[in-house]
């Protein structure tokens, strides 16, 4: 759950490379949420450079003058500010969108790993050997650090190491992700419910998981 919001100095929060989500609501043709990230920062000119936002792999150039809200995030916080596109330019052979560097941003504290409800089917293995037998499961919720899953035909115990295959969307999947059973709930009608912790997650995958959860979280807030 969200904890609290405060205004902080933007220079303390906005760093090169931090993932971003650009949200446009004022221009009907561009209305939506798009992936981006901070490519560069020029503090002398007070300009922040965003990568060209994208949606399902398609780049969305934001014309000069379009107002938008930018959300940036790390493990523990979301940073948000309202801004305006200064057009599309080429900087160091990369097309970017410059926006005015804000004085302050709205910082929202989050739990280390926000957990969201999500129902997906996947497979797990008791070994990472190529010919290992797989077992079906269904997720109940997921975070960047783990998930709750329901298993119908295989009893597991606390401490068991398993390997997970799970497709989250067209761009993100867990492939034989090493994991550990850290919680065992009472048996329910659908089967056995287990809490799973992801182990040895590569930084790039963790970053992608945080981004995925964040986008789902924003969409759920919008529906409410």
Automatic annotation (TrEMBL):
Domain PilZ: 109-215
Official protein name in the record: Pilus assembly protein PilZ
GO MF assignments: cyclic-di-GMP binding
Organism: Fervidobacterium pennivorans
Pfam family, one: PilZNR
Secretion signal, residue range per the UniProt entry: none
Source superkingdom: Bacteria
Coiled coil: none
Positions of the Type III secretion system flagellar brake protein YcgR PilZN domain: 27-102
Gene3D superfamilies recorded: predicted glycosyltransferase like domains
């Amino acid at each position: 759950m969200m904890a609290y919001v405060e205004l902080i100095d933007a220079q303390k929060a906005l760093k090169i490379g931090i993932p971003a989500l650009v949200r446009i609501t004022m221009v009907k043709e561009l209305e939506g949420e798009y992936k981006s990230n901070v490519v560069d920062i020029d503090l002398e000119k007070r300009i922040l450079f965003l990568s060209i936002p994208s949606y399902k792999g398609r780049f969305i150039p934001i014309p000069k003058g379009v107002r938008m809200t930018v959300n940036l995030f790390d493990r523990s916080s979301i940073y948000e500010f309202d801004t305006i596109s200064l057009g599309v330019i080429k900087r160091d052979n990369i097309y970017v969108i410059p926006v005015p560097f804000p004085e302050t941003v709205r910082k929202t504290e989050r739990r280390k790993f926000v957990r969201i409800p999500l129902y997906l089917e996947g497979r797990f293995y008791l070994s990472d050997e190529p010919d290992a037998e797989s077992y079906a499961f269904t997720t109940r919720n997921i975070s960047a650090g783990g998930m709750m899953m329901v298993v119908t035909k295989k009893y597991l115990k606390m401490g068991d190491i398993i390997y997970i295959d799970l497709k989250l969307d067209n761009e993100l999947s867990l492939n034989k992700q090493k994991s550990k059973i850290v919680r065992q709930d009472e048996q329910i009608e659908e089967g056995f419910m287990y809490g799973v912790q992801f182990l040895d997650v590569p930084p790039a995958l963790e970053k992608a998981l945080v981004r995925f959860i964040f986008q789902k979280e924003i969409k759920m807030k919008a529906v409410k």
